[in-house]
């Protein structure tokens, strides 16, 4: 079987000076490294030792150096780094399609917040996050950055599934599903950090202030203070609608990025989701502070929030990753779709076919994502000594033939459903399009049961 044929029946061959590793994936039609030079190789191979890439390069060379306990012939496949989803609310998959075609403030205050207040509990977060992870892993997303409530349950889902994740406990100055008294949100955040599962370098804790219009200056500052103490990522929604920017200008006399900078919030471990209404002075400030942006193009378009100045961000050196946002505003978790939209939207909007070329977009979905999460020394590209997070796409589909440029294919032609095998931390988590660590049928059954009551909200 393609992608599954191992020649480990000749163990004696392996001892002839070759280093034994756990996996040797060889003879891939294409190997897309996403390294600094965006090197793509024909007939490529990777060697995986425990959780790490021990070898990346031409098949002939890698096969001379390594013998795999599992050796797979990847003829007909493309190997690439796992994608990095920098902004998602995993449990919101339970609200997929619940309230479409509304403006953001109406969608948020009239549909989502009431649904969350009435229905979000630990059980919904656990199963909803697991549903999202199943979808993401099958779509080649190996790392996701989450922000929601009952985030302990999301951490359990991430641990069980084998995905890599940054898990942000949500904080706002209103009663939240897991904290009715906003006056106790600091204790809630501290308890989350204290109880976060230790000894797993695949998952990292984070704190997520919902937005400057739902969190006071004081809240933003103590949350960022806690993040600094713990050296963890601070997340926030920023400048998503024009209206919120005008409100903030009226209240504080500052643009949102200036406002956060005045409060001392901006640094390399702050990640702002959206950043649509950011002016040129603000983007320079983001670049200076090394603060990242999560670009959620599908969600921005669906909520008619606006077009983020991505080409300007990139030319000014602002770090940008791609995100799907939650399922309620997208309505799927497929970064292939987001890459395609990102490349095309910015061309038409800026009337420039060279705005956001495919290579820039693929970088945003891989190394750019790793950078904004503060994880780029370990993930985002296929390079020796980085974590073995990768995907194998089956190239034998009509929409992927012929193949002249694998980067173009990943952005413009491929879909999440082309992903066949996925590894995270050196462990296979998707095989032949099926998730391995959880039972998909069970997740779907649980979600159908949990969401039965939600349909009546429409
Ligand atoms: Zn969001």
Please tell me about this protein's structure.
The protein has 458 residues and is an alpha/beta fold. The protein has two domains: 11-82 and 379-440, Urease, subunit C, domain 1, CATH 2.30.40; 83-372, Metal-dependent hydrolases (TIM Barrel). The protein contains 16 helices and 17 strands. It has helices at residues 11-14, 59-65, 104-119, 122-138, 151-161, 185-195, 217-230, 242-252, 256-262, 280-289, 297-302, 310-316, 335-349, 358-372, 406-413, 440-450; strands at residues 19-32, 40-49, 52-58, 66-73, 77-81, 83-88, 141-148, 164-171, 203-209, 233-238, 270-274, 292-295, 319-322, 390-394, 419-424, 427-431, 434-435. Strands 1, 2, 3, 4, 5, 14, 15, 16 and 17 form a nine-stranded mixed sheet that branches. The chain is globular, with a radius of gyration of 22 Å. The protein starts with 10 loop residues before the first helix and ends in an 8-residue tail after the last helix. The relative contact order is 0.16. Residues 5-14 have low confidence and may be disordered. Residues 87, 89, 237, 273, 325-326 line the site of zinc ion.
Provide key terms for this protein:
458 residues; alpha/beta; Urease, subunit C, domain 1; TIM Barrel; 9-stranded mixed beta sheet; 8-stranded parallel beta sheet; 16 helices; 37% helix; 24% strand; binds zinc ion
């Amino acid at each position: 079987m393609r992608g599954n044929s191992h020649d480990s029946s000749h163990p004696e061959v392996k001892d002839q000076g070759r280093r034994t590793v756990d996996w040797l994936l060889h003879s891939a039609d294409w190997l897309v490294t996403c390294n600094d030079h965006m090197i793509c190789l024909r007939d490529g191979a990777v060697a995986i030792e425990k959780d790490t890439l021990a070898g990346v390069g031409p098949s002939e060379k890698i096969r001379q150096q390594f013998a795999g306990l599992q050796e797979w012939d990847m003829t007909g496949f493309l190997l690439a780094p796992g994608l990095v989803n920098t902004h998602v609310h995993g449990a919101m998959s339970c609200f997929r399609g619940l309230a479409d075609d509304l403006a953001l403030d109406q969608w948020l205050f009239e549909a989502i917040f009431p649904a969350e207040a009435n229905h979000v509990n630990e059980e919904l977060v656990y199963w909803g996050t697991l549903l999202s992870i199943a979808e993401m892993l099958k779509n080649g997303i190996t790392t996701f950055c989450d922000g929601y409530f009952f985030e302990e349950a999301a951490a359990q889902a991430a641990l069980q599934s084998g995905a890599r994740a940054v898990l942000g406990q949500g904080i706002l100055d209103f009663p939240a599903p897991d904290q009715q008294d906003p006056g106790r949100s600091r204790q809630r955040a501290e308890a989350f950090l204290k109880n976060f599962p230790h000894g797993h370098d695949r998952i990292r804790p984070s704190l997520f202030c919902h937005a400057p219009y739902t969190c006071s200056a004081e809240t933003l500052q103590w949350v960022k203070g806690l993040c600094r103490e713990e050296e963890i990522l601070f997340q926030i929604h920023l400048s998503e609608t024009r209206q919120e920017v005008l409100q903030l200008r009226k209240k504080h006399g500052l643009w949102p990025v200036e406002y956060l900078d005045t409060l001392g919030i901006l640094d390399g471990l702050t990640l702002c989701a959206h950043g649509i209404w950011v002016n040129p002075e603000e983007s320079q400030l983001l670049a200076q502070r090394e603060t990242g942006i999560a670009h959620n193009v599908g969600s921005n378009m669906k909520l008619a929030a606006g077009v983020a100045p991505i080409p300007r961000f990139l030319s000014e050196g602002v770090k940008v990753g791609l995100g799907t946002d939650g399922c309620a505003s997208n309505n799927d978790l497929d970064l292939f779709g987001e890459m395609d939209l990102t490349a095309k939207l910015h061309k038409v909007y800026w009337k420039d076919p060279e705005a956001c070329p495919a290579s820039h977009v693929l970088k945003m979905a891989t190394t750019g994502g790793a950078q904004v999460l503060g994880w780029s020394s370990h993930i985002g590209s296929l390079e020796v000594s980085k974590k073995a997070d990768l995907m194998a796409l089956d190239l034998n589909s009509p929409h992927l033939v012929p193949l002249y440029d694998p980067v173009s294919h990943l952005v413009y032609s491929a879909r999440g459903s082309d992903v066949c095998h996925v590894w995270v931390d050196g462990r296979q988590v998707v095989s032949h399009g099926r998730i391995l660590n959880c039972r998909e049928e069970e997740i779907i059954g649980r979600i159908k049961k949990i969401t039965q009551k939600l349909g009546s909200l429409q």
